[in-house]
């Protein structure tokens, strides 16, 4: 919690006014009789669809400092990156158009805090260039998760951290000795349940899970990747989120030897990322197909490294049994135990087969999935992977 002073309250009210009472600032459109235009000191932009007065940094400086330069310089700090407003994405000074003075940029309150201040509802950030992460959820429950016992035990360790971290770090005084948060690497072949596990962890622990879109984070331009990462970690700070980096090797892969400036800056990005992850007080999960793809500098800092193997026959049987539609019948020729022991498939692949088999059943205007449907579905999946069915 942050206690605002009067200047900060005025800044917040000013940014809220176009949303709450759009006509409130119309008086600032008054003309200066000497120049036959608006007063420069008032700043402001004229909205297009909105039509009203959009306050800028200049508007705020006028209200707080008038013509006093010393006060102006003091209050300009409210709009700096290190201030609470910027660090917690409450209030932003937008870039000024056409390289005009910086304070000509509009004052913008974030959607999340706009919702919180007006409706009392804490809004969730939308996927955008400014926040390249998407909220992911699942309709499944913890009981639907089929994993080896050892993997389950390691997942439970994360749940234990979420439940007891406050006591451990604060009441037991371990915040002086331990880094904040919990970092884990999930690795294993595609379709083995890494993303589903992250979603179910969030559901069990009452935490939102955000999957980071690395295609929007990684930039070929020097310094841009760090900026994009900074937006995510700044937004997530103190939010009780799980940050899920899928296909993490694209960003967390092994560092290269320094042969040119590009390599040097790429390694610089990794160092920056290491620091942000170490300092983050929430849960970070990286997912990769191979553990060896991830830089050792990261794995050394993880509290857990969890392997998601291709399911064993007993687990495949459970996955097959849970996968069938509730409203569809099964051909008596379908022997799930035999299929589970014969075909080495992941949970994701099994769901693809059930999807195909169900659609073929509906196409025939029938209600019973046949053994042939399942066989054809398995054949299709084997062909996708370049395998031959035996």
Question: Summary?
Answer:
The protein is α/β, with parallel strands linked by helices.
Keywords:
Rossmann fold, Helicase, Ruva Protein, domain 3, 3 domains, two-stranded antiparallel ribbon, 16 helices, 12% strand
Notes on the protein architecture:
This protein has 390 residues and is of the alpha/beta class. It has three domains: 6-119, no CATH class; 133-307, Rossmann fold (3-Layer(aba) Sandwich); 313-384, Helicase, Ruva Protein, domain 3, CATH 1.10.8. 44% of the residues lie in helices and 12% in strands. The strands form five sheets. A six-stranded mixed sheet has the order 7-9-10-11-8-12, covered by helices on one side. Strand 1 (31-32) and strand 2 (37-38) form a beta hairpin. Helix 6 packs across helix 7 (194-205), helix 13 packs across helix 14 (336-342) and helix 15 (347-363) crosses helix 16 (371-384). The mean pLDDT is 90.
Largest sheet, in brief, is:
6 strands, mixed
At the fold tier of CATH, the topology name of the largest domain is Rossmann fold
Gross morphology is elongated
* Mean residue pLDDT: 90
What is the multimeric organization of the chains shown? single chain
CATH class division of the largest domain? Alpha Beta
**CATH hierarchy: architecture of the largest domain:** 3-Layer(aba) Sandwich
Number of helices: 16
The assigned structural class equals alpha/beta
| Beginning-to-end CA distance, first to last residue | 63 Å
Q: Can you list the strand order of the major beta sheet?
A: 7-9-10-11-8-12
Q: Could you give me the name of the CATH homologous superfamily of the largest domain? A: P-loop containing nucleotide triphosphate hydrolases
Structure summary, number of beta strands? 14
Estimate the strand proportion: 5-15%
N-to-C order of helices and strands = HEEEEHHHEEHEHEHEHHEHHEHEHEHHEH
